[in-house]
Amino acid sequence: MRPNVQSGPGIHVQDMSHNIGPRRILDRISLQLDAPRIGVIGRNGSGKSTLARLLAGLIEPSQGRVLIEGVDVCKDRRAAISTVGILFQNPEHQIIFPTVLEEICFGLRQLGRNKADARDAALATLTGFGKAHWLDASTETLSQGQKHLLCMMAVMAMRPRWLILDEPFAGLDIPTRMQLTRHLENCGVNLVHISHDPRDLAGYAQICWLDRGQIRAKGDADVLSAFETEMIHEGARDDLADLAG
Ligand SMILES: Nc1ncnc2c1ncn2[C@@H]1O[C@H](COP(=O)(O)OP(=O)(O)OP(=O)(O)O)[C@@H](O)[C@H]1O
Ligand SMILES: [Mg+2]
């Protein structure tokens, strides 16, 4: 089946809203993004993970749509899986198989690769990361940092053009964080990196600030500075109402 190509390169979010039950989580988001490194910044509960899932086509927006490289990522799942991948905030939400080999092969099989071909590609990816000896390892026994790396390898093996990173390094130590970041930045994939921490997005060309389900600002590094200034101001208050949900 031919991909459902409907617009130009990059990411087009077209008047998208998303409700969960009676609550509006994202409200009329429109974005046109085409830089190779895009940052999305926002507070806890602002809707970042919901936006990440919508960008990856994993959930259907209540209104509007997301086109990536012209592919409607929710409606055309076959084209979407080679267009966009996602790394979740928590690797436990991503890993579903008992062994590393099965975990990496799953996505490759979804792309239509046969069993032997998928195994070869999985091994090549593991070898590229210096982890060929992980092939038959149990996913359950991996440390948190190792699970993050496995998720990254599984998604990289599928060679998507875009990768959505939903705070993928929370809880990792500094060297692991630096190493995984370096891998991501050198692998030639376009990144949408979602974080609550401006330090993660230093040097990114396009920044979107998500605030209570809406785009508060779009632009360059100035948006990060404005966000940081406001966060420090908010942090000086004692009110935890924003976490109440
Ligand atoms: N499955 C769900 N059912 C009900 N409410 C939800 C669900 N998922 C998210 N929400 C609500 O939607 C809002 C946005 O959640 P989301 O996880 O997208 O925020 P976030 O910016 O990723 O937060 P964090 O920085 O804490 O990861 C929150 O108020 C949350 O309570
Ligand atoms: Mg989140």
Automatic annotation (TrEMBL):
It comes from the Bacteria. The keyword Ligase does not apply. One of its GO terms (cellular component) is ATP-binding cassette (ABC) transporter complex. Residues 11-237 form the ABC transporter domain. One of its GO terms (molecular function) is ATP binding. InterPro entries: AAA+_ATPase (IPR003593), ABC_transporter-like_ATP-bd (IPR003439), ABC_transpr_CbiO/EcfA_su (IPR015856), ECF_ABC_transporter_ATP-bd (IPR050095), P-loop_NTPase (IPR027417). Pfam families: ABC_tran (PF00005). Keywords: ATP-binding, Nucleotide-binding, Transport. Belongs to the ABC transporter superfamily. This is ATP-binding cassette domain-containing protein. It comes from Paracoccus aestuariivivens.
